[in-house]
């Protein structure tokens, strides 16, 4: 490798999409199949996530679909960024989905339907996520999953984004309740963006804790 590891494994946290690209490469090396084929056969089909798919070179989205808008300058206009093919991100985010499918997926994660007990334990071994402490003190990160503390304990969660769109997904530790928050606008003003994130976190608490 050209660059040494940023940190020792399991000691600290730093997000990088490259880690998920490497995971996709490992899937392909071990199985001999493209990563999205394995995701489809092992996750999408068993859970009947029929509205989640790998778009390939498809130039359009199936109707109906949400619209996404991005502001490139604080005083600039909102630009429609809906037609953005996520395959550019490969295994770091190259699927198209719906809020319903995402909620169902997270319930399956929370209920242990996708992984063996030992794998679930490894998934949930977390370290403090330094980069998220300004959003919510105590946020931790495991193997591709976040722990967000809240007034009723906490939830397993993750965030994701494409130009003009973002999601915040979460599930209770027992998998009983899951929620998906979808934002269709990305603002350039950092203060306004931070205010929106704070409201997202408050809404997430209300939905998870009831």
From TrEMBL:
**Annotated Beta-lactamase-related domain residues:** 3-195
InterPro entries per the record?
A: AmpC-like, Beta-lactam-related, Beta-lactam/transpept-like
Upper lineage ranks? Bacteria, Bacillati, Actinomycetota, Actinomycetes, Micromonosporales
- Which PANTHER family does the UniProt record give? D-ALANYL-D-ALANINE CARBOXYPEPTIDASE, D-ALANYL-D-ALANINE-CARBOXYPEPTIDASE/ENDOPEPTIDASE AMPH
Q: Which SUPFAM superfamilies match?
A: beta-lactamase/transpeptidase-like
- This protein is called CubicO group peptidase (Beta-lactamase class C family)
């Amino acid at each position: 490798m050209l660059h040494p590891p940023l940190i020792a494994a399991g000691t600290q946290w730093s997000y990088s999409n490259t880690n998920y690209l490497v995971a996709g490469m490992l899937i392909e090396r071990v199985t001999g199949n493209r990563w999205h084929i394995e995701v489809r056969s092992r996750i999408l089909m068993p859970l009947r996530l029929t509205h989640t798919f790998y778009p390939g070179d498809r130039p359009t989205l199936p109707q109906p679909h949400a619209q996404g808008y991005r502001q490139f300058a604080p005083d600039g206009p909102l630009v429609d960024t809906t037609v953005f093919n996520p395959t550019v991100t490969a295994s770091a985010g190259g699927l198209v989905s719906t809020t319903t499918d995402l909620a169902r997926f997270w319930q399956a994660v929370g209920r242990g339907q996708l992984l063996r007990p030992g794998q679930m334990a490894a998934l949930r071994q977390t370290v403090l996520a330094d980069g998220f402490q300004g959003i919510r003190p105590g946020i931790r990160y495991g193997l591709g999953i976040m722990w967000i503390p809240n007034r009723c304990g906490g939830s397993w969660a993750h965030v994701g984004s494409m130009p003009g769109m973002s999601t915040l997904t979460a599930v209770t530790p027992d998998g009983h309740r899951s929620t998906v928050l979808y934002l269709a606008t990305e603002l350039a003003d950092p203060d306004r963006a931070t205010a929106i994130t704070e409201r997202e976190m408050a809404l997430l608490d209300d939905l998870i804790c009831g």
